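Tutorial handout. Part one gives the primary structure; part two gives the three-dimensional structure as tokens.
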Amino acid sequence: MIEESFKNVVSDIKNEIKSTQIKTMFEANKNLIMLYFRLGKILYENNKYGNKFIENVSKELKLTFPELKGFSSRNLRSMKLFYQDYKDDENWQQLVAKLPWGHNLLLIEKIKDKKVRKIYANTTIENGWSRNVLKFQIDTNYHLRIGNSSNNFSNVLPLDKSDLVNNVIKDPYIFDFITLKDSYNEKQLENKMIDRIKDVLIELGKGFSFVGNQYKITVDDKDYFIDLLFYHLKLRCYIVVELKVTKFIPEYVGKMNFYLSAVDDLIKNKDDNPSVGLILCKEKDKITANYSLKNINNPIGISSYQLLPPNILESLPTEEDLNLYINLEEKSK
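Part two.
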């Protein structure tokens, strides 16, 4: 009993330390971003010193603060642009102060439309995207994919719930970390997704918690197996995912509808919201998908997915190629 009590005390101490570390990092980042904003203001308001002004400022700062990084001519120009972009909008200033500098530069460089940029800024903060993940989401048009599935959410869920669910489901999903040959089956796709489940969860989005694959449910003494089962922490519901390696056909909806009814009866807790189905197909026709969902009472989304093209796999170096390259590199040193 004393040992268990001791563990609880230590756990509380660790949580306090971690919480303080996060707050400290957040404040440090905020202070750095606002410093860059103020420096950008000074640079913006002092163009009278000629074309070499920023280069000369950079040299002076490097001499005075040789141990500090971030004062290159290029970065100083970025600070000036940063100030120009946000100088008249205090709400934006508060938002970008929550993002690391590299993320801010990427958003300014890649997205000129500030309404679209705000979607990425807010989603980055919410999901904790790294710079590489943010770049991937921008390159794959996340803002156009989110809420783009064929679904019946608005017909079967309350308005506030349907909007939340709709903003969780994408179309298409980009699984560019998975490569399969031209001819593959559902089991092979499922195995690849399980092998890279961390990457799958990143693409699915924040809140998805993996429960299991080939998840067994028993109805009337007969076993059925769900391809992938997740629980969404924000939506507080199970999400049933069925994988299809062909174009969508209406029959897929009937099977998903059955799974959702069974999950709600056999697995869902009384405090959980109704389970949501996601049918992932190689491709789909929106009109067919919408008709298939017309009189279905369980919430179902239908989305397509994209994998890394098979020809890319053929162009990648083999393990023998990499070993040979490494050996040549070592000999050349």
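Part three, for discussion. Residues 312-319, 329-333 have pLDDT under 50 and may be disordered. The longest strand covers residues 208-219.
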